[in-house]
Design goal:
The protein is mainly alpha-helical and 330 residues long. Among the domains are: 60 residues, Serine Threonine Protein Phosphatase 5, Tetratricopeptide repeat, CATH 1.25.40; 110 residues, Serine Threonine Protein Phosphatase 5, Tetratricopeptide repeat (Alpha Horseshoe), CATH 1.25.40. The chain has 15 helices and no strands. Helix 7 runs antiparallel to helix 8, helix 8 packs parallel to helix 10 and helix 9 packs antiparallel against helix 10. It is globular and about 75 Å long.
Length: 330
């Protein structure tokens, strides 16, 4: 038997053995690599989680301890009517981060709402020449109206309106001040603009209804008040105020207020999304429906309009459009 014959006889067995050895080695290699890979993946995941948690903690700490968050805190307090408390927090804010136009505007509003007119006026004047100049002129206009100086209020509010021409609350203020100054026809444009820019504003609705009543357009005034479901008390206040305007408007409007800056003045806010909050606002509107009041300075995305809450409002707004050709349209 030659060497070649012997090799041919043993080759199948050797092949099988060799194949088994290779398979075992491969299985071990795969198992070992998989285990190592899982260990590395677990370690990497743990490191990533730890890093993410550390980053989140850092961001949270920075957010809690930031000027922007403190400003929002003070703004929320003022929206809730905590004017005296907000003054204390404004002091703390300015001690830490210094005086800014935002803190000055908040201070001016709080001083006006707590009956400190002289200090409030000084603060509003400091806003002139800053990015919040419009807020300064508006605040000065509100103070002028509180003194009964409605022609001066109109001029100051016009200066504010030139800087922020699409501010619906400001336009409503300007229209009301114009009515009280005896500038009845001049009130029409800003009041129409205010309602179309913010159809959900109870202040804009009341002021436009007052204009319509004062100019003898009773039918349209009734439609507007009906579409917006104004309470009987609010409607009576509108009609009484209109009667006084037609008579000369020399005395303060009964139940409508007269731009009072003192504590306890009701602030008419944007229509909330909850029924309970809407009820509270309706009650506040019944108390002082026509007063020239400070409104929220910040914007509010996602706020539902009156036409969404009450489809009849859209029809009423359309009927009061400046382009309308119906008889008696302002």
């Amino acid at each position: 038997m030659t060497y070649e014959d012997f090799s041919r006889m043993r080759s199948p067995r050797a092949g099988r053995l060799l194949a088994c050895a290779v398979a075992a080695a491969a299985a071990f290699a795969l198992t070992g690599c998989g285990a190592l890979k899982d260990q590395y993946a677990a370690a990497a995941d743990a490191q990533q989680r730890a890093a993410a948690e550390a980053t989140a903690d850092t961001k949270a700490g920075a957010a809690v301890d930031s000027k922007a968050t403190y400003l929002k805190l003070v703004e929320q307090m003022q929206k809730e009517g905590l004017w005296f408390a907000s003054l204390a927090h404004i002091d703390a804010l300015e001690q830490r981060w210094g005086v800014s136009p935002e803190s000055t505007r908040m201070r001016a509003d709080a001083l006006r709402q707590t009956g400190q007119a002289a200090a409030s006026e000084q603060a509003y004047r400091r806003l002139v020449g800053t990015p919040l100049e419009s807020a300064g002129y508006r605040g000065l206009g509100l103070l002028a109206g509180a003194r009964g100086s409605f022609p001066e209020a109109v001029q100051l509010l016009k200066q504010a309106q030139r800087l922020t021409p699409t501010d619906a609350a400001l336009l409503s203020d300007l229209g009301y001040a114009s009515l009280r100054a005896g500038q009845i026809e001049e009130a029409r444009l800003p009041l129409m603009q205010a309602l179309q820019l913010r159809p959900d504003s109870t202040q804009a609705q009341s002021n436009l209804a007052l204009y319509l009543e004062a100019t003898g357009q009773d039918e349209q005034a009734n439609r507007l008040m009906e579409a917006n479901r104004m309470s009987p008390a609010a409607r009576a206040a509108v009609r009484d105020a209109a009667q006084q305007l037609r008579a000369g408007g020399s005395r303060p409007l009964a139940s409508a207020g007269s731009l009072q800056p003192a504590t306890g003045v009701t602030v008419v806010r944007r229509l909330p999304d909850t029924a309970a909050a809407a009820t509270r606002e309706d009650q506040a509107q019944q108390q002082q429906p026509l007063m020239l009041k400070a409104s929220r300075w910040s914007g509010g995305a996602g706020v539902r309009t009156a036409s969404q809450l009450n489809p009849a409002t859209a029809d009423a707004a359309a009927s009061l459009s400046p382009n309308s050709t119906s008889r008696g349209t302002p």
